[in-house]
Design goal:
Radius of gyration: 20 Å
Distance between the termini: 18 Å
Helix content: 40-55%
Strand content: 15-25%
Order of helices and strands: EEEHEEEEHEHEEEEEHHHHHEHHHEH
Structural class: alpha/beta
CATH class of the largest domain: Alpha Beta
Number of strands: 15
Strand order of the largest sheet: 3-2-1-4-8
CATH topology of the largest domain: Nucleotidyltransferase, domain 5
Number of domains: 2
CATH superfamily of the largest domain: ATPase, nucleotide binding domain
């Protein structure tokens, strides 16, 4: 039987998104289920397996037609051993997910960091493999990155490359509670933006007061609506985040001489025009001109599908 399909799974802190992709590089179908963390990693693997079996049921495709199962997780992973070294959002440490998944399916399993997978998807599908030296940055609960050098994903000496959210940055006026410099994601992630808005809303007016008072989650689309209404507090906090992001990307461009930077994540998708403009302005101020003038800085159009397509690209890389 011909093996014409790849299963791609993106395991997030909130949802597990699974898809079957055919050899024409088309998503045949997809399934989304809630991520359950508190029951432990074995239960999480069971949830992934159930979502894959649901795909089989929906499509009529069986595992004998699958050439690879690509799995993206938010953490440090070893693609060679199949071990997740640490995935804080999933409460996982030193866990052999490859071994556990093989209890459910006799399919070659390929493991990768979720943003690395998104980076591969963007390079392979959105840029037609034409990113030579690039950086993909996803801004969400935290901030993650994927580095592409000489046309290939750069994983680093211990598979930790791209974890830019943990970089220490210290722009003027930004400090955490104990006076130490803060990390990139503690200053500019969606979580950081929202937390700062909530804290400052106690003294400043905002259209988000009702949401905050009700203890509801401030979603990316709520931030977009506040920007559209010219909410001073929200615009200020979003601009501050854009300044930090642009400054970091500019500094990395000066260091690495990149040709392409792609940004993504729910907050970028919801407020793309605002964020790309703000980030680009700060980026140009921060980077050396000779390095920045060749850079194409854009938001991805793939959205949540980026890591799914990345799973197909990963199979192309390892199973040629």
């Amino acid at each position: 039987m011909a093996k014409d399909y790849v299963i791609s799974v993106d395991v997030g802190g909130t949802n597990i998104l699974s898809a079957i992709i055919n050899n024409k590089k088309e998503i045949v179908d997809r399934v989304k289920v809630a991520t359950t963390i508190k029951e432990g990693p074995d239960f999480l693997v069971k949830s992934v397996a159930e979502s894959i079996n649901e795909l089989f049921t929906k499509t009529g495709i069986n595992q004998n037609e699958i050439r690879a199962l690509s799995l993206g997780v938010p953490g440090t992973v070893n693609p060679e051993s199949g071990i997740i070294s640490v995935a804080p959002n999933l409460n996982i440490e030193n866990y052999n997910i490859k071994k556990e998944m093989q209890k459910y399916f006799d399919i070659p399993l390929l493991l990768e960091n979720d943003v690395n997978l998104a980076g591969l998807g963007i390079k392979f599908f959105e840029y037609d493999n034409k990113i030579n030296n690039g950086l993909v940055v996803f801004i969400g609960t935290g901030i993650g990155g994927a580095l592409i050098f000489n046309g290939k994903l750069y994983r680093g000496s211990s598979f930790f490359a791209g974890e830019i959210g943990h970089m220490k940055v210290k722009p003027s006026g930004y400090f955490d509670g104990d006076g130490k410099s803060s990390t990139f994601e503690n200053l500019a992630s969606r979580t950081a933006i929202v937390n700062s808005i909530i804290k400052k809303s106690e003294k400043k007016d905002t259209v988000l007061k009702k949401i905050i008072a009700n203890g509801e989650k401030i979603k990316s689309k709520s931030l977009r609506k506040a920007i559209e209404q010219k909410d001073k507090l929200v615009v200020k906090e979003m601009n501050k985040a854009c300044k930090v992001i642009g400054t970091v990307l500019g500094s990395l461009t000066t260091l690495l001489n990149l040709d392409t930077i792609v940004i993504g994540g729910g907050v970028v998708e919801a407020s793309e025009e605002f964020m790309v403009a703000g980030i680009t302005k700060a980026f140009k101020n921060a980077a050396i001109k000779d390095a920045s003038k060749i850079v194409k800085l854009n938001a991805t159009k793939l959205g949540d599908d980026a890591p799914l397509y990345g799973g197909y690209a990963l199979a192309e890389e390892f199973l040629k």
